Each structure stands twice: as structure tokens, then as C-alpha cells.
Amino acid sequence: MAARTYLVARREYFENLRTKTFWIGICAFPLILCLAIAVPLWLDKKKDVRKYAVIDSSGWLLQAVEERADGPDLAKVFRRWIRELRKSKSDLAGVPAALRPQIEDMLAKIDDSQIEVAARVFASLTGPDAAKVTLPEPVLEKVRSSHEAIRKWWKSLPPKEAEELASGLSKSRYQRVEVDPAWKDPEAELNKLLASEQVFAYFVIGKDPLGSSDGCRYVSNNLTDDGLRRWFASLASDEIRARRLAQKKIDEATAAWIQEPLRFEEKKVGEEGEVEEVKKEDTLRQHAPVVFVYVLWISIFTIAQLLLTNTIEEKSSRIIEVLLSSLSPGQLMVGKILGIAATGLTIVGSWVLFFIAAIKCLPFFLEEMPDIDLAAVIRDPAYIASFLVYFLLGYLFYAAFFVAIGSVCNSLKEAQNLITPVMLVLMVPLMAMVPISQDPNSSLAKLLSYIPPFTPFVMMNRAAGPPSALEYVLTTLLLLVSVAGTFLCAGKVFRMGVLMTGKPPRLGEVLRVALGRGRSR
Q1: Tens digit of pLDDT for each residue in 21-58?
Q2: 144 in a domain, yes or no?
Q3: Do both 354 and 378 map to the same domain?
Q4: Do residues 27 and 93 both lie within one domain?
Q5: CB of 419 within 8 A of CB of 312?
Q6: Cβ distance 270 to 276 under 8 Å?
Q7: Structural domain of residue 379, as residue ranges?
Q8: DSSP code of 506?
Q9: Domain count, the chain
Q10: Alpha-carbon torsion 322, 326, 328, 330, what sign?
Q11: What is the number of other CB atoms lying within 10 angstroms of the CB of residue 311?
Q12: How many CB atoms lie within 10 A of CB 345?
């Protein structure tokens, strides 16, 4: 019996591997995942530059906002240039040849902690002599000598060229349009430009923004994209806050102390009972089970669906009748399930390889890599072992249902009605995923762990808890007993359905046969 079951499993496995659709399916998931991440980022970069105008009745706030906007942008550009210089790349892309010697000499003397200050200096209209600058004298001297040239170049830099210098610059996303001083009614003229889509929006700054928000308006016909409004309002609010503090003669250090929140340093208790630091990898490891549950759900559903379609296809083409002339229905059913299981493991293994390859390739696409070892989660033996065990047991549990449904149906259309209850059960772990991940040892999580249809997903979701060894043993034993029971019931339905033709039985009749209370037609 085992030899014949093995032959069926091997046939199912290699039959799938020989098809083009199998390899297309293997590549489809990582491709879709990559596209889901890359396409929105690409589309966001391809958005039109948001042109805006500002009517500044205060006479000073607009200039202050622009200086505050230029500072972070220049800091990003400086950081990229410094990385290139440290990699011995002397060609600073997008920088005029006349400015390169000055910039290279200046950046060579700047420490990482001084980049933000230097960027604010270059963003300032009056330069380093207008206020106290906390930069070493050699660096300050270089800033003084190149301030005017760099500021003039930066102000005349078009948005498209700014985008090539560094990603995420506000200068490459937003471009201010000058308000013509000859306009008698600036708002009326800007309304015309807004109606003709020559500007995206315009701001009106009141006469006394330091005192109140009276007269401050944001006018735009686009009510969904409020990025421009939030960006400008944030910069304006920072400037107003700084001036109000200065007006009350509160220095920056005191203001920062007043606004500083109370922070609780995150700690955890180690395996030996000692208090340890919480690292980024620890936080990532706590959230990793959610990703594993998604992949587990997709894997089980995809592979079980493959088993369903395979069974219906072979039944409709009469291949099953030929196979049953050489082996029993039970041998055929178990062989098909195991063969598709091997196919599923191949697919999941390929996804793991794609993930590892993606991690290795990330440095080539990102300017700054996050200081987190993403591969550490994949290498975690607890997660890998849990995923493999629950994938196999979860697949076997649901495969019995899918193969039984496939055996009594002649087409996928007929299978839709019978598969609906199974799909409703499969949706429950997804709906409970977030509450369980937040409290993996709650009463709800423990209760769902002992319900066999949910056990693989819930226990995988609780892996960061983690559950006690006793819970692992009890839930696994219960799941094994449930898998054996579903195989027994599915075998009865499969025996009835593989040779049955005509109208498929109703759900109630299938259940009676599975429970041993019905007869084959």
C-alpha cells in the first residue's frame, strides 16, 4: 500500500514540476509582493511637482518657512555626498564643476553630527555671521567662503535636478510660484490659476501669524492629497513656536526641556532572569509572526486550492478511473495529498530563497539600509520549525476537505458552493490575527489554539509569546488527532465521489456520508 501511495505522490509532484504554470506560480508571489512595494513608491515619485503660491501679509513668515525647508533637504544631500567621498567617489553628481572643490573640501572637515547645523547655515539668507553657529572654526571658515555660491546654486536648482541629488527632498516635490506684485487682487488671480490647474494650491498668511491664525488660509481643489498643506503648515508652526518662545525670552534649551516628554526605557527579562536591553531585532522578532501567519495562510490556501483543481481536472478527464483500476481510493487520495504537499514545500522553499535574495539586494536599491538584521528572523530556528510543522499539519487538515470536495464535483463552478464554509473558517484566523499578536497569551489566543481549524495559524501567531511547552504538545496532539479524523471522513466522501457523475450531491448529503450515516449514490 505504501509503495503505491508513494508512486501516486511522486507522479503528482513531478507532473506539477513539469508544467509552465507551476513555475509561473512560483515567481508570481514574490513578483506581486515586489510590485506591491515598488509600484506605489515609483508612482509617488512620478507625481507632478506640486506648484503653489503664497500671499504673505506678515512680510517675514514665508522667508522663514523656506529656510526651514531648505535645511533638511541640504542635510540629506550633504549626507549622500559624504558617503560618496568616503567611498572614494570624487564625482559629485549634479554639482557644478566650479563648486566641487569647495564642497569636497568643506565636507571633508564636517563630522556627521555637524551636518544638520551646516545645512541650516546654508539655508539661511544672511549666513553664518547672523547668529551664533556651533561649528568648529575650520569648518565655519569653509562654510563662510562657500555660503553665497552654494545658496545661489541651490535656490536656482530645478525640482527635477534636485530629485537626482537625493530621494525624498521637499524641493523636488514642491515648487513655489511667485506672486506678481502688479496684481491688484492676488487672490482673484490665483483663483484663475487654480481653476486652470497652473497651480495646485495657494496659501494666505495673515498679518499677525505670531498672535493668532486669523486670516491664514489654504486654497485647493484637490481634497485628497493634503501633503503640501501638512508640509507647509508644519514648517510654519515650528517657526511660530520658536518666535513665541523667543518673545517670552525662553531659550531653546529651556523650551526643549519643557516640551521633552517622560520616556520609559524599554527593557526585557532574559532567559536567566536578568534585565536586558531591547534591541531592534527583538522588536522585529515580536512582529515577525504576523508575517509568518500571512505566508502560512496564503501557502495553505494556495496549495489546497491546487489540490482541489487537480482532483476536479483528473475526475472530469476520467484519469481517476484509470488510476483506480490499479489502486484503492484511499491510496489514491493519500498519494495525491502527499504529492501536492511536496509541491507546496517546494513553493514555500522558493519563497524563502527569494526573500533571502531580496535582503542581499536591498543595499543596491536603498541609499541607507536600516540597522536591522532582517535575515535573523529567517534564521530563527523556533520560527522556521513552527512554520514547517504548522504548514504541514494545517495543509493536511484542509487538504482533506478540499480533496473531498473536488471528488464530488465535476467543475470548479460546482465546487464554489461546497467550498464556501471552508473559506469562512479560514477567514477567522486572519480577523483575529492583530488581537492575538498584541496579546499572544490572552484567553482568546489560548481558546482559539485548541480549535483545530485555527490551531496552525493561532499557534504560529503566538510564537513570539511564546506559548508554554505543554500548550505546544497538547495543541499539536489535538491537531494530529483532528487530521486523522478529517482523513477518515474525507476518505469516505472520496470513495463515494470519484466515480460519481451527474449532479453533485448537496452539502448535507456530503456531511452524512463523511459521518458514516449516508450511502453512495
Answers
A1: 778 777 777 787 778 777 777 777 777 889 999 999 99
A2: yes
A3: yes
A4: no
A5: no
A6: yes
A7: 2-34+280-514
A8: P
A9: 2
A10: negative
A11: 28
A12: 17
Three-class DSSP labels, 122-182: HHCCCCCCCCCCCCCHHHHHHHHHHHHHHHHHHHCCCHHHHHHHCCCCHHHCEEEECCCCC
Tens digits of residue pLDDT in 240-290? 998 898 888 888 788 888 888 888 877 777 767 777 776 766 676 777 778
Q: Which residue has the cell 506678481?
A: 180
Same domain, 164 and 105: yes
Instruction: Report the distance separating Cα 405 and Cα 510, nearest Å.
Output: 9
pLDDT at 520: 47
| Cis peptide bond prior to 370, omega within 30° of 0 | no
Nearest to 115 by CA among 52, 86, 155, 73: 73
CA gap 240, 217 in Å, rounded: 16
Q: Look at residue 482 and give its three-state secondary structure.
A: helix
The pairing of strands 217-220 and 275-277 is unpaired
Length of the chain in terms of residues written: 521
H runs (alpha helix) in 227-275: 227-247, 252-259
Run of H or E residues at 276: strand 275-277
Place of cell 510564537: 463
Q: Do the Cβ atoms of 143 and 51 come closer than 8 Å?
A: no
Provide the edge-to-edge strand list for the sheet that holds 217-220. Answer: 174-177, 50-56, 201-205, 217-220
What does the alpha-carbon distance between residue 308 and residue 15 come to, in Å, rounded to a whole number?
Answer: 15
- 188 & 140 share domain: yes
